[in-house]
Each structure stands twice: as C-alpha cells, then as structure tokens.
Amino acid sequence: MNSSQALYNRLNETLRSCLVVSNSKQVTNWIWIVVGILQARSLALSQIANHLPMDTEAESRVTLIRRWLQNGQIDVWAFYQAVLERVLQGWQAVDAYVLLDGVMVFGDRWQIFRLSLQHGCRAIPLGWVVLAGTGLTQVEKLETMLTRVADFLRGRVRRVTLLADSGFRDCDWAKLCGKIGWHYAIRVACNTYVTLADGRYGRLDAFVPYRQNRYFQNIALTQDAKLQTNLSVTWTDGTDGPIEIVAVISERGACRKRLHEYGRRMSVEQSFRDDKSGGFDLAHTRLHHADRLERLLLALAIATVWCHELGEQVILQGEAARRRIDPGPRRELSVFQLGWRWLQRCLSVRFHDLPIFKARLTNLKLKPVVSLPNL
Questions:
Q1: Are strands 193-195 and 201-203 parallel, antiparallel or unpaired?
Q2: What are phi and psi of 44, to 5 degrees?
Q3: 72, 110, 351, 372: which one has the fewest Cβ atoms less than 10 Å from its Cβ?
Q4: Which of 72, 46, 1, 86 is nearest to 302 (CA)?
Q5: How far is residue 332's CA from residue 67's CA, in Å, rounded to a whole number?
Q6: How far, CA to CA in Å, does 92 sit from each of 79, 88, 124?
Q7: How many other CB atoms sit within 10 Å of the CB of residue 361?
Q8: How far apart are CA 27 and CA 11, in angstroms?
Q9: Could you give the CA distance from residue 186 to residue 162 in angstroms, rounded to a whole number?
Q10: Which of 165, 168, 160, 227 lies closest to 193 in space, CA to CA?
C-alpha cells in the first residue's frame, strides 16, 4: 500500500462518520486533497495532484481537484462544523479565546480573515472569509462568520473572549461582541481620542507616562464617544522592536489581566506562519476565485487539526517521543510543529506509528516556546 492510500485510510473513517452527504464522492475527493496537502507540504494544486495515487495524467489529477474546488454544492461551513462538533467534545467548562486576524496571500490579491481557537499556544481554525484587496475591512463583511461561530460555540464552551489587534479597532467590532455574547480584548491605536471618567479628553497617549502601566475605567472611545468601555495601557519592552504603547479595550474592568489576555493573540500570528513558511506554503496559493480558496482552506483546516492532534499525542507520550523529532534538550517546537514533524517522520520511515485521525483535541495548556511581549 502506498503512503497516500495509507494516509487516506487514516482520515477516511472519522471524517465520513462526521458527515451525512448525499454524494459521497464529495467527501472522497476532499480527503484526497487533504492527503495531497499533507504530503506535498504545499497548497499548489500541481503539487497536491502529484501525491494522488490515481493512474492518470497530471492534468487529469489537477482537474479533479479544480472540480471539487469549483463545486458549489460543497458547503464549507456545513462540512467543517460537523468535524468541529467532534473536536470540541468535552470543552463545556473551558474559557475559550478566539483570535481574529488577517493575512495577505497571492501577493496583494486576497486577504484571508480567520477566526481561530487558541490551543496549546497556537490556534486551530474556526471560520474564515476570503476578501479581495488590501486594507482594513468593515464589520459587516465578517459579521456572518462571527455570528455563525458564536452560535456554534454557545453551549460547547463556557465563555468566549475575542482577541484582535488594532486592525479591528473600529468600535463596531466591540459592539458586535456584545451582540453575540462574547467578551473582547482589542488593541487600539495610541492616537485614539478618549474621554476619561473624570471628564478629561484627548489622545490616550497623553494620559500615559512613558513606560508606565495605566488602567482607565468607564471611558468613552473616539472623538464621537461611540463606545463606553475600559482601557488597559502598557508599553512593549523593546526586545523585538521600538518601545511603543499597547492599549487594549475591554468591556470588563481594566487591569493587568486584560493585558495578559491580549498577549494570547500572538498564537494566531504564529499559526499563520505555520500555514505559510512553517508548513503549507499558504502565501503562494494562486487561486483566482475567493470561493475556491475558501474550499481549499477547508482541506487545510483538517490538515491543521490533525497536526495539532498528533502534537498533543507526542506531548502525552513524554520526552522519549518528543526527542525522536525535536533535537533540543527541552521542547522547542509548538504543538503544531510537533505534530507536523511526527507526521513527516512517519511518512518517511515509521508509517506504522501514525495513528488514525480521531478529530479530538483537549484544552491543552502549554508554556510558549518563544517569548511573548512583556505586557
């Protein structure tokens, strides 16, 4: 049995048990694309097709992938929601942190906006939207995604906190969190105008002494006082760049804990790196249609979840398992990278050690392998 077929077999049973579809070929081809991504370490269709075991010409295998990506009957959320239901079993007591961020791919052609769930100092995808062009986006373009994920998480986790950087500083993002029942910790620009509880008004950086923390309760944000919120302010330590203000708004009381919560947002930045240079070469996708890219991301999401699952298993097996793929005297790889390297090692020399895909994750708590900003 070739490695592609063996990978397919390890994914097939669980994914089919999650889904009820009228056309089973949709699931078959989906799994083959996941297999191709894992083996090719790329989202380039020609590379994925190179690992499909069909005895056909390369053009025919690429055509098979393109037809699946073009298939309007493939409901991305319906497919992925069915898998997430299984992944998050047992998370009812978890305080979940959901990270919103965007990344450019195909030069400046597409922006991928993704909601991700923090898991072991990294994050797994919850939902995504592909939009054309660069720059900030309006809340209306992502509201459906956030609302859909909020409805899904309700009852599956105890509470949700949205973390977002200053690209989502518009007050409407915080207001949407209130509407869907989420807490929020969102960074705002240092030149944002605020009205303090004592009536003082001005740019927020005018109220913060150099390199000192400040916590402001019951402030009004922006010149138009669009949002009543609380503001926690600190400074970066200058380790990874210039010293600058970090100002975070939240509907909960301003305090040091809000800053630590916001610091978790680094997880999604590292996860995008895993998708790009650290794993699947996402940045170089050349798809010309947003809906097709969203379906390709559906296959990538399964590959990502499996790498997280495998990484968990490596950690649970202890140091002997970790040292087979991580040469450091202590853990120097993220949960994703542990799973990714375990998978690649199994594909190369120890396929019998590769377990089946179970689509199960725990609320794994790990110390970060890289230093986070001193907030």
A1: antiparallel
A2: -70, 125
A3: 72
A4: 86
A5: 40
A6: 22, 8, 17
A7: 23
A8: 11
A9: 8
A10: 227
Q: Which two tokens stand for residue 42?
A: 């790329």
Kindly compute the dihedral angle of the four CA atoms of residues 285, 288, 292, 293, in this order, to the nearest 10 degrees: 30
DSSP element (H, E) containing 335: helix 335-348
C-alpha span between 109 and 99 (Å, rounded): 23
What is the three-class DSSP state of 51? coil
The answer to whether 175 touches 184, Cβ cutoff 8 Å, is no
**Alpha helices (H) in 19-57, listed in sequence order:** 24-40, 45-49
Annotated domain spans of the chain? 166-259
Q: What is the pLDDT along the chain (375 residues), one digit of tens a residue?
A: 688 999 999 999 999 999 988 899 999 999 999 999 999 989 999 999 999 999 899 999 999 999 999 999 999 999 999 999 999 999 999 999 999 998 888 888 899 999 999 998 899 999 999 999 877 789 999 999 999 999 999 999 999 999 999 889 889 999 999 999 999 999 999 999 999 999 999 999 999 999 999 999 999 999 998 999 999 999 998 887 899 999 999 999 999 999 999 988 876 666 666 665 656 877 778 888 999 999 999 999 999 999 999 999 999 999 999 999 998 888 888 899 999 999 999 999 888 889 999 999 999 988 766 544 455
Written as one letter, the residue type at 85 is E
Q: Are 307 and 340 in contact (CB under 8 A)?
A: yes
Strand (E) or helix (H) holding 232: strand 227-235
Residue 261: phi and psi, rounded to 5, are -60, -45
Q: What does DSSP say about strands 95-105 and 159-164: parallel, antiparallel, or unpaired?
A: parallel
